[in-house]
Structures are given as structure tokens and as C-alpha cells.
Amino acid sequence: EKRMAFTNLAATFHTNADAIIADLKRVSHNSITESQAITVAGKAMLSGLDPRALPGLMEFAKTMTKFTGENVTNTFDDLSRAIVTSQDRMLRMQRIDVDFDKAQDTLAKSLGGTKDQLNEQQKQYANLTALMEAASTMTQRLGKDNQSMSDELRATTTGLSEAYTKLHDSFFLAFGKLAIFMMEVFAERLDRI
């Protein structure tokens, strides 16, 4: 079952699936279903995104849909895909002022190295931090109605910074999580045959 697989995936991040789902539904103002929350969160987490980043990302996606008219789950997927693949051009086309190369260079220099020496998780961390900062800046320009989102995004960035300090070498852990999730999905499909 999809729900059980997601519960197991969340457990590999030492987090609670119900809390992730509830947070995503809350910040999207219940514009997504539980099944949609599981799908978008599962994809993002399998890509290596920290589940603590998901509520801030969802809140930004919800805000963006007010201006783009897009579906919130599609926008969330686009944002998370951009973070994972370092494709900031797509975001800049939506007037989100973000530069992933610069963010990665800054992180690499802070670690005493070069951008080429960053692993995938470090690149994602830099990308996510840059996006959250850009989202915070955008919401400040949009006015006071979005102040709570701005605060949430700042809190997300701070939380991610603390988490990164603890988990910066867990890139291979993400592959283990992916393997577990894929085996569960495969077993589920075999049960249906």
C-alpha cells in the first residue's frame, strides 16, 4: 500500500509520515489530498530532500499558484525537481530570482573547497537554501499578507542548516532509502498480480 510505503520511507528519515502529511495539507490550506501529499513528499524525499524542508517548499508552491494559476502539486514538483537537478533557469523564467551555481560556490568556499568537490546532497542543500532565501525575498515584496510564509521559510532555512551540519555525509543513505522504497513498491505490485 502506498501509505505503508510512505510510512516506511518517512521512518528512514527518522520522521513521522502523519506529521509530514498534516504539515503539507496545512500549509497548502487543504488544497491537496492525503494521496497527493504522499506522492509529492515521497518523490521529493526519494530525491534526497530533507522532509523538514517540505512544508516551506509547499507553502511557497501554494503562494506561487496564486500568480501562475498552476496546480499546487505540479508547482511543488517543479520546485523540488529544480532543487534536485540544479535547474534554476526554469525558476528564473517564473521570476524567482535564484542562482544555484552561486549558492553552490558559496557553500563550497565555506567548506574550503570548490563547487566540483560538493556531493549531490551538498548541492541540493545549497540549492534549497538559495530557493528558500529567494522565496522569503519574494514574499516580502508581496506584502504583509505573506509575512507568516516568510517566517516559515526563514525557519525552514535555519532548520535545514542545522540538519545539514548533522547529515552532510548521508548522501548514500538516500540511495538506501530509495532501494527500500522501490522494493516495497515492487512487492506491492507483485501482490496485485
Features:
mainly alpha; 193 residues; globular
Could you characterize what this model shows?
With 193 residues, this protein is an all-alpha fold. 76% of the residues lie in helices and 0% in strands. The chain is built from 10 helices and no strands. It has helices at 2-12, 17-27, 34-46, 54-68, 72-85, 88-93, 100-110, 120-142, 147-167, 171-192. Helix 1 packs across helix 3, helix 1 packs antiparallel against helix 10 and helix 2 (17-27) packs parallel to helix 4. It is globular and about 45 Å long. Mean pLDDT is 79; it is low at 167-176.
Order of helices and strands: HHHHHHHHHH
Strand content: under 5%
Helical percentage: over 70%
Basic shape: globular
State the helix count: 10
For the secondary structure, the number of strands is: 0
Major β-sheet, in short?
none
First-to-last CA distance: 14 Å
**What do the pLDDT scores average to?**
79
Structural class: mainly alpha
- What are the low-pLDDT stretches, counting only 5+ consecutive residues below 50? 167-176
Estimated radius of gyration: 17 Å
